[in-house]
Amino acid sequence: MLSEKQKLAKIMHLGVEITEVKDIDVLLERILREARSLVNADAGSLYIKEHDKLKFSYTQNATLQKRLLPGKKLIYSTFTIPVNNQSISGYVANTGETLNIPDVYKLRSGLPYSFNKHYDELSGYRTQSMLTFPLKTNQGDTIGVLQLINATDAKGKVAPFRKSDQPLILHFANMAAVAIERAQMTRAMILRTIMMAELRDPKETGAHVNRVAAYAVAIYEAWASKQGLSHEVIEKNRDVLRMAAMLHDVGKVAISDAILKKPGKLSDEEREIMKQHTVMGARLFTERYSEFDEAAAIVALNHHEKWDGTGYPGHVNFLDAKVLPGHEKSDGTPRPKRGEEIPLFGRLVALADVYDALSSKRVYKEKWDEARVLDEVKQSTGTHFDPEIVETFFSNLDTIQSICERYPDH
User: Fold this and answer.
1) Residues 6 or more apart from 391 whose CB is under 8 A from it?
2) 150 partner at 20 to 30 Å CA-CA among 238, 322, 323, 343?
3) Helix, strand, or coil here: 263?
4) Among the options 252, 337, 361, 378, which is catalytic?
C-alpha cells in the first residue's frame, strides 16, 4: 500500500494527467480507475448530474471483470436517479456531504437514504464498504458523484474505507471535477457543430455521432490490445479518436441542400458533389493545433475509402482536391486508397458508420434487423472493410450492442 506522502504525490501527478484528457467519456473512465487505485477499491461507479437527476455514466468492477474472457469489458446500462435524499448517491449530490459506510447492508434505521441491492442480486456481487463523495467545481457546484465500493486490505479482503484517505480522495475529486467541466465544454462545442450539420442533414444527429464514435473506440481498444500496443498509446489514441469520429461527416455543411435533402436517388453528377464532403471536412482542420485536429482530418477524409480500393476520395490533397503526384488513374482521376493505405482511424470509422446507418431508420430506408446488418458486414469483409477490424467487431459484439442502447434516437 502507498504511504500518505506517496498518495499525495500520485494525486498531484494525476491532476496534471487528467487535464490532458479532452473527451468526456474517456475522462470519466480514467477518473474512476485512478480513484479506485488510490484507495484500493474493488469497484466503483460514476454519476454525472443532469438538471435534477444523476445519470449513471460509468462503472468498473475488478471481481466481475475477472469472470470475463481476456479483452472483454463489463456490459452495463445507463439509468438516472433523482437528486434527493432517498438513495446514497442522490443524498450525496443533494447535500454535498461525503458518506463513508462500512457495510451498506447494515445501515442503521432512521437514515433518509437506503441501499438498493438489486444490482448485487443480478450480478452475484456483494457490496459491502462504500465511499461516496460529490464532485464539486471551483464554484462549489456539484456536477457529479463518485462512488467507490469494497476497499481491500493488504490480504485482498474487503475492509472499510479508511477515514484518513478521505481528504486525499476529496482533493483528487476536486481536480477531477474541474477536468470534467472542461471536457463537458469540449463535448458541447462538438455537439453544437454536429447540430449545425444536422440542420443541413437530418441523419447527422447527436445520437448517431455518439454511437459511431463509441463503436470506433470500442473496436480500436480491443484491436490495439490484441496487437500488444501499450496502455499509454491506447489511452492517448482513444481520446483523440472519440472526438474525431464524432465529426466524420462535418464536411456535409458545405454540400447544397438540393443534394443533401433530395428524397430520391442522386444523379452521377450529384453523387460526385456529395463525395466532396470528405475533402471539405478534412479542410476544416487545416490548422493543426493538436493531435485531435490531425485525427479529425484523417477520419473526415478517409471514412469512405474501401479495403478493396473502390472507395473515395482516394489519393488527393484535401487542401485543393488535386490528385497526389504518382496516384493518378489513366483517366486522370485519383486512385482510391486500398488496404493499409487507408489510415487505421478511417478503417475503424468506416465500419462503425455503416453499421450504425444500417441499424437506424433513415428518410430513405427503414431500420434493418440485426441479423441482416451483421450479414451485410460479413459479406463486406475484405471488400468494404478491413478483415481484422471486422473480426474484432464480431468478437466484441456485446459491447457494440450495449453502446447502441446507451445512445438511443429520440
Assistant:
1) none
2) 238
3) coil
4) 252
Q: Residue 301: which of 278, 333, 267, 332 has the closest Cα?
A: 278
Q: In terms of Cα–Cα distance, which of 187, 166, 154 is closest to 50?
A: 187
User: Is beta strand 158-159 parallel, antiparallel or unpaired with respect to 316-317?
Assistant: unpaired
pLDDT digits (tens, 9 = 90+) for 133-192: 999 998 889 999 999 999 999 888 999 999 988 988 998 999 999 999 999 999 998 888
Q: What is the rounded distance in angstroms from the CA atom of residue 283 to the CA atom of residue 279?
A: 6
Q: What is the Cα–Cα distance from 312 to 4, expressed in whole angstroms?
A: 57
β-sheet bridge partners, residue 134: 145
Q: What is the DSSP string of 203-254?
A: T--HHHHHHHHHHHHHHHHHHHHHHT--HHHHHHHHHHHHHHHHTTTGGGGG
Q: How far is CA 51 from the centre of its chain?
A: 22
- Read off the pLDDT of residues 312-346 as tens digits, 9 standing for 90 and up: 999 999 888 788 988 888 888 899 999 999 999 99
Residues 317, 320, 322, 325: is their CA dihedral positive or negative? negative
The one-letter code for the residue type at 240 is V
Give the burial string for 92-112 (b: 16+ CB within 10 Å, else e). Answer: bbbeeebbbbeebeeeeeeee
State the Cα–Cα distance between residues 75 and 403, nearest whole angstrom. Answer: 9
Where would I find the beta strands (DSSP E) of 69-176? 80-82, 99-101, 130-136, 142-152, 158-159
The pLDDT of residue 405 = 86
Which residues have C-beta within 8 Å of that of residue 139, sequence separation ≥ 6? Answer: none
Q: Which 3 state secondary structure label does DSSP give 312? A: coil
- Cross-strand partners of 152: 158
| Alpha-carbon span 103 to 150, nearest angstrom | 9
Joined grid coordinates for residue 83: 437528486
User: Is 252 a catalytic site residue?
Assistant: yes
Sorted by where each starts, the structural domains of the chain and their CATH numbers stand as 4-183 (3.30.450.40), 201-406 (1.10.3210.10)
Number of C-beta neighbours around residue 181 at 10 A: 17
Give this prediction's pTM: 0.85
pLDDT value of residue 158: 96
Output phi, psi for 301, to 5 deg.
Answer: -75, -35
Residue type, 196: M
